[in-house]
Design brief:
This protein is 0% helix and 49% strand. By secondary structure, it is an all-beta fold. Strand 3 and strand 4 form a beta hairpin. It starts with a strand and ends with a strand. The chain binds FE2/S2 (inorganic) cluster.
């Protein structure tokens, strides 16, 4: 059973931004929306480019490469050219630390 592991500090991700991290060899993007944090696989389901290069719009991450959009809470693909979802991960904040379960 997966345990929560520390992956980042809250101060590393300012409101409205998305940042790339690695844990156990997996690229993980974490975004901050109104000081709520969401994590998802840092790999677009269209052509595997990093989603952390993209932009947050509302509650979606927009892939900078070909414009696909994903819901950061569910990973659902909501805009072509992506069809498949991206994996999302459970997070919790303890003090200044962001912990993730992968
Ligand atoms: S790699 Fe993300 S839309 Fe193509």
């Amino acid at each position: 059973m997966a345990e929560f592991q520390k992956i980042a500090k809250t101060s590393e991700i300012i409101d409205g931004e998305v940042m790339p991290f690695y844990l156990d060899g997996i690229g993980i993007a974490i975004c901050n929306i109104n000081n709520n944090y969401y994590a998802f696989r840092d790999e677009c389901s269209h052509e595997t480019f990093p989603l952390a290069d993209g932009d947050i719009e509302g509650e979606n991450i927009v892939c900078i490469y070909h414009g696909a959009e994903f819901d950061v809470k569910t990973g659902e693909a909501i805009c072509l050219p992506a069809i498949e979802p991206v994996e999302v991960y459970e997070l919790k904040v303890e003090g200044d630390d962001i912990l993730i379960k992968i």
